[in-house]
Amino acid sequence: MKSAELEEKGSDIWQLFREAQQNILYLNKQRIMAMEELDRVKREKSSLLDQIEQLERTKLINTRKDKFSISAELLLRIDSMVLSSLIDSKEASDFRRLVMDSKVSIVDYFSDIMHKQDTRLLVELRHFSGKSRTSGYHIIHICTEMAPVVSVGSLAQYVTGLSCALQRNGNLVEIILPKYASLNLNEVHGLREVEAEFFSYFNGQMHSNRIWTGVVYGIGVTFIEPLYYSSFFSREKVYGYSNDFERFTYFSRASLDYIVKAGKQPDVLHIHNWETSIVGPLFWDVFVDQGLGDTRIMLTCQSFESQCVEQPEKLALCGLDPHRLHRSDRLQDNNKSHLVNVLKAGVVYSNKVIIMASMQTKGQIIHAMSHGLEPTLTIHKDKLLVAPGFDSSAWDPSADKFLPQNYSADNMKGKSVCKVSLQQHLGLQDQASIILVGCIFSDISDVELENLKTLIWMASRRGVQFVFMGSGQTPGLNKALEYFEEELKDENMRFLSKNDEALAHLVLAGSDIMLCPSFDDTVLQVPLKAMRYGAVPILLNFTDSNFGHFMDHDLEGTKFSRYIKDTFANMSLNQAIEGLKNNPSKWDKKIVDAMTKDFSWEAECCDIHISAYTAIKN
């Protein structure tokens, strides 16, 4: 009897256990479904917010164009009138000056009639009476990149950021680009083909081109599309072909032919890197007497690494005299005397040369970073200027759509939220009081990896968390970081091999400290972004000798270089961690001060360029 009762009770218990197990499985299933549903709702919400933002942007564009867009579009229509012989170059020049000097009244007068044909628009232009003359400059960029239309390196953001800043400061800016097959046309408004023939010189003949015009962020953009040499810009990549010299020489010559044909008389032709440096000798040897006597040339170099050396006879392709230019004081390469150097042409034949660099002084660049151009730069050192630049609109924690909560120097609460969000996303211990060090690389050397191992070993023993992210721009970088992660196996460390834009913003916002391989980072600009997001930039390879080097108070340095040298260059990672732990109030003050500094295109960069334009015009 007892045995039967025990068996029955045992059976009941197993029944209850199975039912409990089924209930647990059911609840787990319901929990997973609820989490999936929550994720789906979050995704839908995010998608809906993006759609609303896009609709609002489109509505704003369609209902009200700003004064820069109206002015830019009107200037492009004037070009079209010249190319189709409706007006001559003299009248076109007068109209351009009228537009430049009368932006405010032009918006009211022309905003409702821009859709009309050129003939009707011409009548209105002739009736229009402009206001008083302003002191702004007319600048035309002849370049190979412009964000977001075509972006490869730092040049694209620079051209767009500087152009917008210059226009906001009362200058008129236009841009000429090749009509690449891979253009991003989403932000090009009013794109239209100019219905007029345009020919340019190349290789002993005149060749037909198709001209397109549009407006990007209020800036008039002209695209040149070769017809006979259509393969020049119909390729997948922007750079990296064996005939790059021919491609960009054709474009440079066509740009100058177009400027003359359209009757433009800009104050400054602004050229960039070696790709459009040939404009310098072309302008002075061929074009200056074709109505461009008051125009001057300015060259910007993102660096001197890429220079383009070629056989001298190739200069004849664009109409230059190889014999005249193949001289040591002109285009002859300083190292390979049988060749010509195209970037050297830009330096020699420009009135001013601006070098984009955050930290280096002019002397340091000439002597240590000129890549064989030191003799040329030394001769022309009086025309050299150094400028920093930063796209602050795309990297602003107070308006960053990628962050779970925005913050600013006035209200830093959101930064702790961002840190905890980053920790949770990466499976780190989620506590705002834990020090988190971020690092975003575009490349890393073996020496830097060894330094990292030492730093991580020392800091992780104190509970510091590390997040490393490869930018995905250098082959083999992610493999090196993965090997590094496998070797160290630290629970406080995470490696992100995927180049994720949203996560990059969160890493900056969630970090207390950003390790930087270099303070002069013109591509990723991590030091500038770090300060903007309230993280202290610290040199990865800090030594006492670095401190002595940085304390060279060269008056030619930029405001950014002087600030970062005085504030952060003499600090190691260990010192930064100590400061954050032991004196948080002093640390917070330093962070807030860094966040309020303005190193955008609008600030020092724009001032340096306007000063350069003024100097060469005077």
From TrEMBL:
One Pfam match: Glyco_transf_5
Reactions the enzyme catalyzes: [(1->4)-alpha-D-glucosyl](n) + ADP-alpha-D-glucose = [(1->4)-alpha-D-glucosyl](n+1) + ADP + H(+)
Protein keywords: Glycosyltransferase, Starch biosynthesis, Transferase
EC number of the protein: 2.4.1.21
Regions annotated as coiled coil: none
Annotated pathway: Glycan biosynthesis; starch biosynthesis
Gene Ontology terms for molecular function: alpha-1,4-glucan glucosyltransferase (ADP-glucose donor) activity
Swiss-Prot/TrEMBL GO biological process terms: starch biosynthetic process
Domain Starch synthase catalytic span(s) in chain numbering: 138-377
DNA-binding among keywords: no
Superkingdom to which the source organism belongs: Eukaryota
Record-given protein name: starch synthase
